């Protein structure tokens, strides 16, 4: 049975790189080295072509003021949202959580190892961040109390596409991307306003090259099954299909450093619908897209694909994100 960990407010922790490297093994969906090289080739072979779905909004993506967290969370009005983040210790997930904290939006995490939250986010007031222990593969491990009061959900769980240490204990794509998503979604109350699921480009083409290689152990197939379960759940959903993730995971930092993370030059957002993109996307951009989608009513029931390219981006400007999502739907 899941158990809840309350976090006592203490100053944000500075954590040694050594410790954090132990937390996160940066091997994810596209991170198999040979496949990565293959994937890069494919991406770059298309890079001379102008992306068909480009909607670049010329604005700064990341504000990186030193005191951003302190400043924002003190000045932002307390939100009425309670966002359940699943996979909050992962690359995208930790950026989602840090960003919610900075926006003064309450979040609740389901983590297999709740201590990771303390290391990543420091001690936070329980009114802002609550952490429950739970493994999505086991429905019995998801305490119904976890879901009480939750208004929105962002699910960014995942594991490696190919056998790795992250599969230890049968934590395979089938168990995480399919069964885990199914178990989670089955527990959600019908009152939730939005469920955002981070998925992957290529899920509809897992029998075609190059995706069939990435899918050798079923990751794309199981991600699609997870997507379909969300779509058929009757819950208001948005699915974000990410390209190969870049930038981070920011595993060697504390929360303030997470908030200063930048998407490098890759800040301009390429957003489309369907499954046509081949390319990369900054984790920071994916995290921001998930948070923005929560508030944009017309993203309900929609599936987007996302890349990011060099250039300025929408930053955290809600209007610019509205325009991007709207333009994607208009194609
Ligand atoms: N990597 C890519 O290039 C790529 C491309 C497209 C889409 N994606 C997808 O994008 C999303 C985010 O990717 P990422 O690289 O940021 O993720 P990540 O770093 O691999 O993080 C995965 C998260 O899922 C959690 N998780 C794994 N198994 C779990 C379980 N059984 N129960 C509960 N939580 C579990 C992990 O928790 P622990 O800390 O307990 O392990 C971690 O928080 C994933 O869905 C991924 O598949 C990735």
UniProtKB/TrEMBL annotation:
InterPro entries listed in its UniProt record: NAD(P)-bd_dom (IPR016040), NAD(P)-bd_dom_sf (IPR036291)
Tree of life domain: Eukaryota
Pfam families: NAD_binding_10
Species this protein is from: Dillenia turbinata
Chain ranges of the NAD(P)-binding domain: 87-295
Matching PROSITE patterns: PROKAR_LIPOPROTEIN (PS51257)
Name of this chain's protein: NAD(P)-binding domain
């Amino acid at each position: 049975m899941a158990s809840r960990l309350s976090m006592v407010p203490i100053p944000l922790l500075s954590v040694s790189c050594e410790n954090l490297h132990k937390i996160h093994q940066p091997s994810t969906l596209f991170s198999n080295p040979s496949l990565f090289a293959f994937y890069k080739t494919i991406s770059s072979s298309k890079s001379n072509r102008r992306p068909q779905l480009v909607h670049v909004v010329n604005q700064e993506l990341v504000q990186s003021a030193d005191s951003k967290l302190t400043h924002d969370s003190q000045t932002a009005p307390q939100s009425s949202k309670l966002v359940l983040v699943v996979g909050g210790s992962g690359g995208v997930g930790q950026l989602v959580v840090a960003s919610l904290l900075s926006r003064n939006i309450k979040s609740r995490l389901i983590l297999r190892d709740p201590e990771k939250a303390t290391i990543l986010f420091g001690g936070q007031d329980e009114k802002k961040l609550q952490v429950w222990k739970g493994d999505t593969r086991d429905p019995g491990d998801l305490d119904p109390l976890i879901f009480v009061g939750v208004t929105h959900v962002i699910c960014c769980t995942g594991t490696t596409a190919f056998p790795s240490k992250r599969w230890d204990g049968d934590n395979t794509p089938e168990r995480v991307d399919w069964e885990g998503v199914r178990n989670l979604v089955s527990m959600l109350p019908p009152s939730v306003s939005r469920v955002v699921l981070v998925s992957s480009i290529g899920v509809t083409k897992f029998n075609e090259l190059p995706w069939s290689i990435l899918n050798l152990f079923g990751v794309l197939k199981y991600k699609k099954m997870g997507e379909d379960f969300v779509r058929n759940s009757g819950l208001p959903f948005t699915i974000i299909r990410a390209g190969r993730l870049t930038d981070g995971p920011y595993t060697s930092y504390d929360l303030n450093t997470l908030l200063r993370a930048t998407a490098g030059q890759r800040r301009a957002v390429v957003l489309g619908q369907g499954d046509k993109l081949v390319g990369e996307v900054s984790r920071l951009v994916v995290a921001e897209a998930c948070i923005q989608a929560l508030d944009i009513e017309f993203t309900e029931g929609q599936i987007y694909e996302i890349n990011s390219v060099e250039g300025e981006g929408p930053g955290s400007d809600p209007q610019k994100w509205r325009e991007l999502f709207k333009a994607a739907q208009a194609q």
